[in-house]
Amino acid sequence: MRAIEVFFQVSRGFVAALFLITSPVAIAADVTAVEEEWQLNLNSPNASRSSPQLNCMISTIGVSESYYTILLINQNAFGGGGLELQLWNGLVMLDSSGLGTFASLATADEKIQWTTRMELDSNGLLKVQILNGTSTTWGKFGGKSNLLVSTQTTLANLNTYDPNITANSSGVEFGNQRVNKLILRKVRVYTNNKKSIEQAVDRVVFEN
């Protein structure tokens, strides 16, 4: 029996969530990591106004803890341009990490792709990182010490992750007329540190 079939049997609720059906059910196997693949298609950005500005959120949806991370695109704590990753618990920001450049989006029809990885180790350390980023404006980004945030938690697993929360909590904050499409393309789930399932979601979060 293939791994995806076994995973479907022990975690039907989570697979339902991957197909964008609400109310995921408890999972038998511990989810230790989740990866989301994203794609952003622009039309005509305005560099002088740092427009558009977007955010993409990933959340643990824990019962006793509410940890989530926001990727700020073409904006940061100091103003416009660049990328910034922020880690929150409720209304408290715990950690942040920037790209290292405040360059603003300026290329017509630019396509930006990246992966957001959220992982939890056996000691409760939650880490979120941007990987495999590609763009015209910022070149290749992620996978290093920048765009990496972490905090110690009491979480036992990431079983309550739901891609619906990601899709419903992400979008364009400013300059939506300058965005063609923002897409959550794929979700990968790791149980006990091994990839268990990869689902092509192709959820359109925003589209003009």
Automatic annotation (TrEMBL):
Keyword set includes Signal: yes
Signal peptide: 1-28
This protein's UniProt keywords: Signal
Record flagged with keyword Signal: yes
Name of the featured protein: Uncharacterized protein
Organism: Novipirellula rosea
